[in-house]
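hey can u check if this looks right to u? its 513 residues, i copy pasted from the old doc so theres a chance i mangled smth
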Amino acid sequence: MDTAALRHAAAPAVGSWPTRRARIAPDRPALVEGERTVTYAELADRTARLASVLAGRGVRPGDRVAYLGVNAISVFETYFATWLLGAIAVPLNYRLAAAEIRYMLEDSGAALLVHSADTDALAGATGLAAPVLRVGPEYEAAVVAADPLAEPPAVTLDDPAILLYTSGTTGRPKAAVLTHGNLTWNTINQLAHVDVLSTDRALCISPLFHCVGLGQVTLPTLFKGGCVEPLAAFDAGAVLARIGEVGVTSFSAVPTMLQMMVEHPGWEGAKLDTLHTVLYGGSPVQERVARAWLERGVQVQQGYGMTEAAPGVYMVPRGGDLDRPVSVGVPHFATEVAMLRDGARVPVGAEPAELLVRGPHVFAGYWNRPAESADAFVDGDWFRTGDVLRVGPDGWADVVDRQKDVIISGGENVYPAEVEAVLVRLDAVADAAVVAVPDERWGEVGAAYVQLREGADPTDDDLRSHLEAHLARYKIPKYLVRTDALPRNATGKVRRVELRARAAADLAAGTRR
């Protein structure tokens, strides 16, 4: 899908965004970065030349080509050139430590590392002697001087396309192997849920080392011939301004980004009338944030998924439901869902249970981890998501919590996400996370880490009274801890492993209320 799309898709000219009809032409812009514009014809040509450069450095079909750096045109060129060669792209999280990057390079067996200038120190600190191609004058000169790859090898939908390392919220990261078919079917799923035209201009603000940045809006827009503008870093004010400046039509984000835009001083004056698609995933958004976007005339559509599903599984349909602003919606077009209860596969239902997923977008397994790959599936091809969902009779679903994050207190299941959602309803609470800590009487109890808004100072009694008004007593955390910030990974998810360790230390030290 990816290379063929480059040859045939197109986008509107920069500064002129026709609304009457879509057309496909190679001279229309595919990617914009600052003052630089690359048309589809130019992108196809540069991709073929870069593929020759990579081949000249020894990259062969099945080899892994790693990329380390912020969102940029060079990221797309590297991915597409890698795929044109039948090789496998390995995006790396530039926010990690050198030791973590080294682990991923070694684990993937990368044949080549392509990195941007902003990651010079990080790339050098890995200590690996693997061949390196630095984005800059060397990279540009090599691309310009190379002849386009003459005879690309055959690549099928079943061939691996990309290794995406999981966020590492538990243990060491492992790489999910996504095939060309997985990426293609996820794109089709997205297009079945979201209207995308060649006249669209999408911002790519989520990092391209993550499935949200790659799969929710970016690849579907390129597939249809739209224009994508990758942003090197997220800045709430800059994004709000850019929407109005160039007529941005769509973007995907994680909930913390949506919240930061709503809370930015430029929110009220921002021009958002060109936006027709704002997708988010990774974790639930706070209800007040979703409603703030709705009040500005923009429906934010939650998409639920995971790296292993490339990533889409559920999405809120166009039009949504004002009574369910934080629901994850209904399954995607080519997605089958079931539930796992008491070790057996059962149909979806209102009783919370672990979600099972299968479909052509579900990954091929974990890189070099046959045992973990086998454990990830039940009944052959049903992937165990590890997430607890509740599904209504109309098929709309709500994510209750992660299976492994459930607190079992006195034999009762306590879902941290439910408690957190109640806490953030208080105007005084900016954010909250609840984790389990050991308890002699109940086995486990909750410890709530509460991040307050500036100037707010509710008492413990205020917090507990609010919780008691909305939750059963057994769900109320035993401990309340104030915190300046919650530990999060690059995709905005709370690092619960880290928070549980911190809670245990705080409990031992008596740092609690």
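Residues 16 and 293 are 26 Å apart (CA to CA).
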